[in-house]
Predict the 3D structure of the following.
Amino acid sequence: MEYLDFELPIKELEDQLDKCQIIGQESDVDVSTTCKQIEKKLEETKRNIYKNLTAWQRVQLSRHPNRPYTLEHITNLTNGTFLELFGDRNFKDDKAMIGGLGQIDGQSYMIIGQQKGINTKMRQYRNFGMANPEGYRKALRLMKMAEKFNIPVLTLVDTPGAYPGLEAEERGQGEAIARNIFEMIRLKTPIITVIIGEGASGGALGIGVGDRVFMLENTWYSVISPESCSSILWRSWEYKEQAADALKLTSFDMKKHKLIDDIIPEPLGGAHYDKETTFKTVEQYISKAFKELKDLSTADLVAQRMDKYCNMGQFKE
């Protein structure tokens, strides 16, 4: 297990507990009382730390190297039924954007999401989860296929943003994202969106328009990353913590401002501490959302989705 800076007190106690248990195994000394005391202290420390996380600490947890990425979610949610589909039928297949058919709780879904990669080689292969225009066009092709066969769409968002390279702009990055938003608003099949990690800028919005939008507890959703915001406003990354607070990017901020529908709770310490529980909880939220949406007529489904997004950002003086 890798530990973040603010998790070091937990690491110290877990190391103490390991040493205590080893002493008990390798000698005749009764260390059960000491181990129980350390376990109690460890539990209290975990609760105190994770109960009072700052916005920046939640951003760090969303990027934790042990956190389950999109393919791991898909594999566990679909129990091996996932069939990946490739290509945008225009330029090429984007490895940062994955999609295909799979069954969750007996229901077929068109599942689309960004994949970051689990090691250096895979991250380069997946372009760190930053999709090119062909990735968004592939996603749209799969959504249109789902609409044709009346299959609900599930999108899993985890990206630091769409790829900002010159070649991506030359192939119409902005147009591809805008087209996806336009088409998703009026797609004639249910759309469920889950933010499982980072939800940055238009890169997230390109597959993030849903009838139900959920965020895992320790994720973030914002027009810009804290580091980029800090570099623009203060010409330095040193103010990223202050920027994270100001951006109101946590799941709790998003729910408070009615920009998402609900928060999916994570195990104590984050999704990576108990992946199996995380996958089961995500599955429950997806199934519940689909049951709420499946009996709506196409006209009502699209109208409610349009109303939902038209009502965002309204205010009274």
Q: What stands out?
A: The longest strand covers residues 191-200. The first helix runs from residue 8 to 26. The beta strands are 83-85, 97-104, 107-114, 153-159, 191-200, 212-216, 220-222, 262-264.
